[in-house]
Sequence to fold (133 residues):
Amino acid sequence: MIGLDTNVLVRFLTQDDPIQSAMANKLIEDQLTSRNPGFISSIVLIEIIWVLETCYDQPRKTIEDVVNALLTTKQLVIDEADLVYLATKRFSSGNADFSDALIAVMCEHRGCSSIVSFDKKAQSVGMVYLAST
Fold:
C-alpha cells in the first residue's frame, strides 16, 4: 500500500499543474492496483475537500461526487470508508462542512452520547449547538 498526500490527489483531481499532474497520473493510473492500493487517510480526505471548496470553488454536489468516486475506486483504500460514506450522506443533506459531518459520525461510532459545537450549522449533521447564555 502507498500512502497518498493531499497535494498528489489534488493534482490528480484538478489537473492544474502539467508536471505534477502528469506525475500524479502516472502513479495513480500505472502503479496503484487493488493489490497495491493507495491509502487516503481521513485527514487527507478532509484537506482535499477543503482545497476543492476554498481554492477551486467547487459546489457541494461536486464534492460529494468526488468523495463517492474515491470511495468506489478499487485502487484506493479510504480510512474509515464506512464512516466516510455515512458522513457524505449527512454532508449532502445538511449545510455543515464535510469535516463536521465526519466528526459527528466518528464520535457516534465511538459511543459519544452527544457531540457539541459552537457552529450552528453543525446541527444539520447531528451535533448539538452549544449556545451561550
Q: What stands out?
A: The first strand starts at residue 2 and ends at 3.
